[in-house]
Amino acid sequence: MGFDSALSAATLGLVAGGLIGGPIVKYLITKYNLKPEHAENQKLNYNNMNSDKYLHNRMNPLTIFFLQFTIVVICMTVGSYLGNTFSDVTGLNIPIYVGAMFIAVIIRNISEYADLHLIDMKFVDNIGDISLSLFLSVALMSINLTDIYQLALPLTIIVLVQVIFLVLFSVFFVFKGLGKNYDAAVMIGGFLGHGLGATPNAMANLDVITKKIGPSPKSYLIVPIIGAFLIDLIGVTIITIFINLF
């Protein structure tokens, strides 16, 4: 019962984080007339920008897809091993995906600076979209609603209160603290996605917003590091304290 209740609340948060992130960011952008830096030079066609013409001239789409999938698997495998080794050596528990995140950053930058043409972001984005859909589907399928139907109203009220609080806090405090510019507005989408759901929600919000309005490199640097790494280190400490206190 307790596990199902927690999973249901988490899933409601995932859904809420994906639904409200975009509208809140659009509201902020419209209200303050925000635009990306050098917006006149950033009218991007993501389909063309994200596709690596070098790869497409030398490989067929299926081969490119398997190359990108292999790179993702390598990042996950090597990153998970390094993360587990780090935890064993230091005694600090870190999320398993943190190591994969850093390996991915290393591979991407090596590919760019050495002109290796290993990464095709269009295919990587597609893999990410499919993975996020699978993640959300599995999360929803794992809920046994028949066991927790009597908790539906309390859980809904709790999630609604959390949604209202996070929206007000993000608009009136976080947005202003981040500088009240376009990057700040985009990061609010990540903040709401992660605050109500998880890091995949945050990144999905960033992806939708930046593809429709314009890029925000600062958001893609800050949100994953904070949401996928630092917040977990702090969260473990806070959860441990509350467990011991209550």
Automatic annotation (TrEMBL):
Keywords: Membrane, Transmembrane, Transmembrane helix
Superkingdom, taxonomy of origin: Bacteria
Coiled-coil region(s): none
TM ranges: 6-29, 62-82, 94-111, 123-145, 151-175, 182-200, 220-245
InterPro entries referenced in this protein's UniProt entry, alphabetically: GltS
Record's keyword annotation contains Transmembrane helix: yes
Pfam families (UniProt xref): Glt_symporter
Protein name: Sodium/glutamate symporter
